[in-house]
C-alpha cells in the first residue's frame, strides 16, 4: 500500500500556506484533488499504484502560477513537501 501527503510552507512569511489547490495526476488523469489545511498539509485518501505520478500545486506567486512535482511511487508512505517563496521553490522526499 502506498499513501501520499504533502505540505506547503511559505518560506518568505515563515508559516504554512493555507488553501493551496493541489491535484494528484497520473497519465494525464486527475486521481484526486484538495486544498491544504490550516497547517499547510494535505493527505490524499487514495492509495497509489506503483509508477510515475504528478502533484500540481496552484501556488499563484508573482512568478509561478503553478508548480508540478513529478515522482515515482513505491510501497510505503510518501511525503512531498514544498518550500515556497515568490521567485523560487524547493521540494524533496520527506518522511
TrEMBL record:
Presence of the UniProt keyword Hydrolase in the record: yes
Domain of life of the organism encoding this protein: Bacteria
Keywords associated with the record: Hydrolase
InterPro entries noted in UniProt: Transthyretin/HIU_hydrolase_d, Transthyretin/HIU_hydrolase_sf
Record's signal peptide: none
Coiled coil regions in record: none
One matching Pfam family: Transthyretin
Keyword Coiled coil tagged: no
GO molecular function, one term: hydrolase activity
Domain Transthyretin/hydroxyisourate hydrolase, first and last residues per copy: 4-94
PANTHER family registered for this protein in UniProt: 5-HYDROXYISOURATE HYDROLASE (PTHR10395:SF7), URICASE AND TRANSTHYRETIN-RELATED (PTHR10395)
Entry protein name: Hydroxyisourate hydrolase
Classification lineage: Bacteria, Bacillati, Actinomycetota, Actinomycetes, Pseudonocardiales
Amino acid at each position: 500500500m502506498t499513501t501520499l501527503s504533502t505540505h506547503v510552507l511559505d518560506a518568505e512569511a515563515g508559516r504554512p500556506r493555507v488553501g493551496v489547490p493541489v491535484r494528484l495526476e497520473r497519465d494525464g488523469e486527475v486521481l484526486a484533488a484538495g486544498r491544504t489545511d490550516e497547517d499547510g498539509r494535505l493527505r490524499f485518501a487514495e492509495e497509489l499504484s506503483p509508477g510515475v505520478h504528478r502533484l500540481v500545486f496552484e501556488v499563484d506567486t508573482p512568478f509561478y502560477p503553478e508548480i508540478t512535482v513529478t515522482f515515482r511511487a513505491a510501497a510505503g508512505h510518501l511525503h512531498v513537501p514544498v518550500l515556497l517563496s515568490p521567485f523560487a521553490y524547493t521540494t524533496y522526499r520527506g518522511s
